[in-house]
Design brief:
Triger factor/SurA peptide-binding fold; Chitinase A, domain 3
Length: 328
């Protein structure tokens, strides 16, 4: 269960569902306020549902406001769960008698208004809230209360310390093993599938020409720029750079050639599967284990993300336990 909620997110999705305004995409679905769910008696409408659908799949606004047919049911289902979760969290905030200082609501409203130009804000206010700023304030206050609960029950508890990350690192060494690898660049000549003898001969001529040009290069940049111009493999768009390529996954002739090179050196023509390639070795990386300092930041983010999902899922389960939720 993946929930990503903040006051900013909740406010921004208000704009997405605007029917018939300049802000929404042209033929977007037009919600009419039809009830789609009840949560402990609170009615949620198709307007609320569409907001959440846009939150999950914002690209719909770039596709005439519609959702891909193959994905629409899943998007709707995810949006329904998110919408119900938000309402349950809001009701929990009310049960705890939590409040939001008026100044905080004012700041959130000011930030929200910055996304509008000219008369757009009034158009939005009229279409979504009948022109009532007080109704908008109520929506903003609701968003901030939801954020308060999530901050206390999820964000604060999901924090992962350096000690926790190091403990995980020490217990899972296989996750951080580095195979023997080669940091290399390539320039390749690739004949057509089922090439005729004449096409194979032409490919060899192109390969010989590429080799002469490559031999004139001296640096990573020189070789990379040449790869962008003449290489016929998919790595040409990255200056021919394969980054750290696992030796076990390289074609044997390429791995064998790389073993014979020192960093900065270049191979001759290597042929395999009718492909000709030229390799420039940038580094030979010995097998080992990545240092904790090198993985600490990414590992903490990964563990925090996992912890966040678990906490959100647990909160949802607790709130639903005694709730009356009906989808209409």
């Amino acid at each position: 269960m993946k929930y990503s909620i903040s006051a900013c997110t909740l406010l921004l999705t208000l704009v997405a569902a605007l029917p018939g305004s300049d802000i929404a995409s042209a033929p977007a679905p037009k919600p009419v306020g039809r009830p789609v769910a009840r949560v402990n008696g609170a009615v949620l409408t198709d307007r609320d549902l569409l907001r959440e659908m846009y939150s999950i799949f914002p690209y719909a606004r770039q596709h005439n406001g519609g959702f891909p047919k193959a994905m629409e049911a899943d998007i709707r289902n995810g949006a329904m769960k998110m919408m119900v979760f938000e309402e349950l969290v809001y009701q929990e905030a009310l049960r705890r008698k939590m409040t939001v200082p008026p100044a905080q609501v004012d700041r959130a409203l000011a930030e929200f208004r910055k996304q509008f130009a000219g008369a757009e804000y009034q158009q939005f206010l009229k279409a979504e809230f009948g022109g009532s700023e007080e109704r908008l304030r109520t929506k903003v206050r609701r968003s901030l209360l939801i954020e308060q609960i999530l901050s206390a029950e999820v964000t604060a508890k999901a924090a992962v310390s350096v000690v926790e990350a190091k403990t995980y690192y020490d217990k899972n060494p296989d996750r951080f093993r580095i195979p023997e690898s080669f940091a290399l660049q390539t320039i390749s000549v690739v004949p057509p599938q089922n090439a005729t003898p004449a096409q194979l001969q032409e490919a060899r001529k192109r390969a010989d020409h590429a080799l002469r040009l490559a031999q004139a290069t001296r640096t990573y940049e020189d070789f990379g720029l040449l790869a962008e111009k003449i290489s016929e493999d998919d790595f040409r768009v990255m200056m021919g750079d394969h980054k750290a390529a696992d030796r076990a996954k390289l074609p044997p002739p390429v791995a064998q050639a790389a073993l014979a090179l020192k960093p900065g050196q270049m191979s001759g023509l290597i042929q395999f599967d009718q492909i000709y390639t030229i390799v420039r070795l940038n580094a030979h990386i010995a097998p080992g284990i990545r240092k904790f300092d090198d993985v600490e930041d990414a590992l903490r983010k990964e563990l925090e993300k996992k912890k966040t999902e678990q906490l959100r899922s647990g909160l949802d389960k607790r709130l639903r336990a005694n709730a009356r939720v009906t989808e209409l």
